[in-house]
Design goal:
Chain A is 36% helix and 20% strand. Chain A contains nine helices and nine strands. With 419 residues, chain B is of the alpha+beta class. Chain B starts with a helix and ends in a 6-residue tail after the last helix. The relative contact order of chain B is 0.18. Classes of the chains: A alpha/beta (249), B alpha+beta (419).
Amino acid sequence: MKPTAPHPPDAPAASGAAILRLDQVRFRWPRQTRDILDIPHFTVDSRERVFIKGRSGSGKTTLLNLLTGITQPREGTVTILGTALNALSGTRRDAFRAEHIGFIFQLFNLIPYLPLVGNVTLPCRFSAARRRKALERSATLEQEARRLLSRLELDIDALERRPVAELSVGQQQRVAAARALIGAPELIIADEPTSALDTDTRQAFLRLLLQEAQAQGTTVLLVSHDASLETVFDRAVALETLNRAGTPP
Amino acid sequence: MDIVRLAARSLYNRRYTAWLTLLSIALGVALMLGVEKVRLGAKTSFANTLSGADLIVGARSGAIPLLLYSVFRIGNATNNIDWQSYQAIAHYPAVRWTIPLSLGDSHRGFRVLGTNRDYFEHYRYARQRPLEFSAGQPFDDVYDAVLGADVADKLGYRLGQSIVLSHGIDSAGLAKHDDRPFRVVGILKRTGTPVDRTVHISLAGIEAIHVDWQSGARIPGAAVSAEQARAMDLTPRTLTAFLIGLDSKRHVFSMQRAINEYRPEPLLAILPGVTLQELWDMMSVAENALLGVSVGVVVSSLLGLLTVILAGLHERRREMAILRSVGATPWHIVTLLVTEATLLASCGVLCGVGLLYLLLWIAQPVIESHWGLYIVIAPPTGREFILMALTVGAGCLAGLLPAWLAYRYSLADGMTVRV
């Protein structure tokens, strides 16, 4: 099955076209007797900005691993862009992730031995499609990285010569955001991307990320325990209400 | 693929440990290939020293010592042979030519060889190459000397120059034959054999400088001038050894038997090629031990490489997770680590080869002048390429263990960052 083409940024949002769908998904670790995740149904529409609120231990990490195809559900299907992830081989899943999903970690997003710009262009090394899309916007990958970084209000000229490990946490998260955005993947998944930032930077970071994602038509799914963030999203869902398995004792 | 660039970047990030690892591999490889070069150099230079002679005859002792002192100027004869024996054997019907050799004196560290003009006619080295003169001609007079190329080069001698020979071949405290100077009449072209490091004079010359000597010292009060000596009977009484060329190879074994059974004096005749082979067989134990030790050094340096990569692995689990998140497969991770190990090993091998050639370039003249071993600086041989390839292969293999661990980590961790 071919994934649906991404919508160009100026096209009207195709509401109702689910970019992500979970059906009867159950997951448990080997040798566990009960499921830690049991989600009967969950969808995210294209271009929607969804906030999933979950405390640590609520199966958040497991959910993210399922959504990115790192782990497979025991039952049910995870469908992204019309492609059921469990129908793909491991290698194809990795390629699928490289092409369609940008990911932002909570902390330490950067490869210490790559330069700042090299960290941003990293997904283009693994996905030809994202490389192509990045090159549609700018003449070179480096220029596209610089464009995104400046859109995220990072002073690239001042920082570029420094090892990435010396950047502040806020600066590192912006570099990570630029990496998730480069080559316009259809979906960005962020795992507590703001929890290490202070309140002011937190709002600014989210505003810039969402703004840029919207500009290129990328759907954003953000998982966090911090309920104060949910106001800037189209929809907020509590993981506890999604997950019938509830919190493990 | 970009993985190579990624691996190179990652190594550069840990450049100090990477450099040390690379250096230890380079040293190991240089040592291993150096042993190989010396072994090969010794073999070719030995094999090239003498050709054309069918038998070497000396006083009865070991075959290998006879070969070493008569041809390679290594060690000394324990006994001489009688001039009469030489004369008798030289007139055997199957003998086409002979070259008498009389050793025992030296000139500033170079050995003096007493012989006759047949030497310049019949001596062959390498592939049947005759000796050629770069200047002058063979000796004629009693006090004429012909120098090997190295002797002339190192001491800066020219034709017509007067030189003084020393008694004995030890370098310290030599008694000099300073009352009988020799005149340089010829300089030989370079041969790459011990001939280059030899001063050649006539047998008569050897006799002349020893007429008033006994047991390694001048006979007191018996001084004989150079001109007086010239008038005396200068037929030698003894020889160190002689080379024989036969009319036909068919006679080699019968001739050898005849000489070994020679009644008046216990003699030993050897076939140079056969004895050389015996020498190799004897040395192969040492050769293999040396090669074994140097392979051991390479292996331990590769274990160092393994340690460096393994030690860094745990801290790199986050890096693996990030790479997975941007679409790297577990196989990319494996490739990354194996590439790092292979890159380190290949750079180590390259540096080792560079180091070896640098050392050879520096040490070649020293080795040649001290041990008479001419090591050819030539491109690596097939066997050396195999050793190099094996080293890189072993490095690649060493990378497989951390790669396998990383594969397990990255399957288990996925994109979850555990530190």
